[in-house]
Amino acid sequence: MKRQDKKVSRWIGIALAAVLFIAWALLWPLNSYIEAPGSASNLRSFVQVKGHPDKGKGSFMITSVALQQARPATYVMAKLVPYMSIESADDVTGGQNSATFDRVQKFYMQSSINEAIAVAYQAAHQPVSKKYLGIYVLQVQPNSQFKKAIRVGDTITKVNGHHFNTAQGYQKYIGRQKVGTPLTVTYQRDGKTHTTTHKLVKLTGSRAGIGIMLTNNMKVTTKTPVKVNPGQLGGPSGGLMFTLQIYQQISGHDLQKGRKIAGTGTIDANGQVGEIGGIDKKIIAAHRAGATVFFAPYVKPTKLLLKYEDGHQTNYQLAKKTAKKYAPGMKVVPVTSFKQAVHYLETTE
């Protein structure tokens, strides 16, 4: 009996060790993230323009990258799958906690939607106005004297009592001050206005600054109401595709012509398209969803640019390479602007 008991105990120990190992492999969080192909969703379900439904038989599709914190098991899997990648937590979040990172990504998305509405309505010759609210705080640097007052997500509306209509206006005014000069900042948080005064710190060179990363915060108003609900998606990379979807609805022009059209790229106030991250994953997601056309941001690949590009390839170069391997038959179209994308859709079938 004693020998039998030892044998049973040994097997119980082995089983317990196996369960603990599997639990560790599946659940233990690592300080890195895995990026994989995400979704390619029909934008018809995201955009509502009053009195202007999307009657097209095709679709515009917004593509995403699936991002999840790595576990030992998924880390090994990502190493084995060519189109998955592993990024450090700092590279992905910029050192921000998950709540702050999510807040910034949602603001990027909303800012992208605002620009998309403005560009689409202007292109369709429909009334649209933009009200500049201030500068949105994306990050507060460790050396900033304002770090105990200002938080990520705040909107700075005045400096020393002055309101400007662009971020550049704020930056130029602050840049004329000297390092160590007290600056009074008025900012909004959760609908409430606050004021704080601290000294400016040294930025690059001898230039003075608050010590924050920022972007524009604006409100867009249209005569014909438009609602855009991005759901759980975040970041600025859906700008171009949102613009195309809104433009098709407000203008009544059928740009889709029965095609499934995917793409990615930021959009600015002038309708210019900017590069984004993870385009290789987005190509695969679009192919899986049946897209036959994919718009990719284009920039001229100079030696200096390629030195700093992810993988030393531009968005378009990486998109073409990925499509050739994983998305045969899908047309990758390089674009620098919204107008260029519209021209392509209008002149091709």
From TrEMBL:
<dbReference type="Pfam" id="PF13180">
    <property type="entry name" value="PDZ_2"/>
</dbReference>
<dbReference type="InterPro" id="IPR001478">
    <property type="entry name" value="PDZ"/>
</dbReference>
<dbReference type="InterPro" id="IPR027065">
    <property type="entry name" value="Lon_Prtase"/>
</dbReference>
<dbReference type="GO" id="GO:0004176">
    <property type="term" value="F:ATP-dependent peptidase activity"/>
</dbReference>
<dbReference type="InterPro" id="IPR036034">
    <property type="entry name" value="PDZ_sf"/>
</dbReference>
<dbReference type="GO" id="GO:0030163">
    <property type="term" value="P:protein catabolic process"/>
</dbReference>
<dbReference type="Pfam" id="PF05362">
    <property type="entry name" value="Lon_C"/>
</dbReference>
<dbReference type="GO" id="GO:0004252">
    <property type="term" value="F:serine-type endopeptidase activity"/>
</dbReference>
<feature type="domain" description="PDZ">
    <location>
        <begin position="115"/>
        <end position="191"/>
    </location>
</feature>
<dbReference type="GO" id="GO:0005524">
    <property type="term" value="F:ATP binding"/>
</dbReference>
<dbReference type="InterPro" id="IPR014721">
    <property type="entry name" value="Ribsml_uS5_D2-typ_fold_subgr"/>
</dbReference>
<dbReference type="InterPro" id="IPR020568">
    <property type="entry name" value="Ribosomal_Su5_D2-typ_SF"/>
</dbReference>
<protein>
    <recommendedName>
        <fullName>PDZ domain-containing protein</fullName>
    </recommendedName>
</protein>
<dbReference type="InterPro" id="IPR008269">
    <property type="entry name" value="Lon_proteolytic"/>
</dbReference>
<dbReference type="GO" id="GO:0006508">
    <property type="term" value="P:proteolysis"/>
</dbReference>
